[in-house]
Amino acid sequence: EVQLVESGGGLVHPGGSLRLSCSTSGFTFSTYALTWVRQAPGKGLEWVSSVTHSGDRTYYAASVTGRFTISRDTSKNTLHLQMNSLRAEDTAVYFCAKEWQYQGLWGFFDLWGQGTLVTVSS
Amino acid sequence: DIVMTQSPDSLAVSLGERATVNCKSSQNILYSSNNKNYLAWYQQRPGQPPRLLIYWASTRESGVPDRFSGSGSGTDFTLTISSLQAEDVAVYYCQQYYTPPYTFGQGTKLEIQ
């Protein structure tokens, strides 16, 4: 069964850091691009960051550029999102999502995890 | 950035009736070299992650019931549910993937009338 399971969310103070992980199974990790999408409480979906299947290219939303870093660990089939200088407006459920096509980066996603909640508050 | 605007924000439809959600992009998302519209539709049921329904504006994802269909081209798109079922209660999002940042519409909440 193809699965994405996020972890690492929690409560953090403004200015703090958090590292999210997305553990994957059921597909060949190194052949699919992966993405983080977030959803603020009661709000819509916001694309955050994507990484190619090989990890050689990364893309970020303007709102997180310079603060967040996406990476992938092929040895552990795990995607990460390092989040620094967190702000209240980063409060959201963070979903990891799998790219639709093998070795592609079209930008739409056929499998999503259940998400992990990040709350930035003093 | 490409802005995606959905209408209406919410919709109440009777069981068995047709439901229509509209999505408009702030710029053309039809790529001329392959004649494909870079638009996807997702369904998000309460407490669940999004689920891919439609991509390339009109291609149904595997396992999606055929009562769901997508249409449109260029800047104007439509998601149609031909005969509403109880399990279709959800928020529906359109998304453009023509260029990063990939952007979503604000969502349309679909309820049973």
Task: State mean pLDDT of chain B (0 to 100 scale).
Answer: 97
User: Strand share of the residues of chain A?
Assistant: over 45%
Mean pLDDT across the residues of chain A is 97
Q: Topology as H/E string of chain B?
A: EEEEEEEEEEEEE
Task: Write the element-wise H/E pattern of chain A from the N-terminal end onward.
Answer: EEEEEEEEEEE
Class based on secondary structure composition and strand pairing of chain A:
mainly beta
Number of helices of chain B: 0
Radius of gyration of chain A: 13 Å
- Helical coverage of chain A, percent range: under 10%
Please give the number of β-strands of chain B: 13
Cα separation of the termini of chain A: 40 Å
- The rounded distance between the terminal residues' Cα atoms of chain B is 36 Å
Supply the number of helical segments of chain A: 0
Beta strand % of chain B: over 45%
Please describe the biggest sheet of chain A, giving its number of strands, its sense, and whether it closes into a barrel.
7 strands, mixed
Q: Pair with the most extensive interface?
A: A-B, 22 and 23 residues
Q: What is the total tally of β strands of chain A?
A: 11
Radius of gyration of chain B: 13 Å
**General form of chain A:** globular
Explain how this protein is built.
The complex is a heterodimer of chains A (122) and B (113). Chain A has 122 residues and is mostly beta strands. Chain A has no helices and 11 strands. Chain A has strands spanning 3-7, 10-12, 18-25, 34-39, 45-51, 58-60, 68-73, 78-83, 92-99, 109-112, 116-120. In chain A, strands 2, 4, 5, 6, 9, 10 and 11 form a 7-stranded mixed sheet that branches. The radius of gyration of chain A is 13 Å and the shape is globular. The N and C termini of chain A lie far apart (40 Å). Chain B is mainly beta and 113 residues long. Chain B contains no helices and 13 strands. In chain B, the strands form 3 sheets. In chain B, strands 2, 6, 7, 8, 11, 12 and 13 form a 7-stranded mixed sheet that branches. In chain B, strands 1-3-10-9 form a 4-stranded antiparallel sheet, with no helix packed on it. Chain B has a two-stranded antiparallel sheet with strand order 4-5. Chain B is globular. The termini of chain B are far apart. The model of chain B has no long low-confidence stretch (mean pLDDT 97). The chains are: A mainly beta (122), B mainly beta (113). Chains A and B meet through strand 5 and strand 10 of A and strand 6, strand 7 and strand 12 of B.
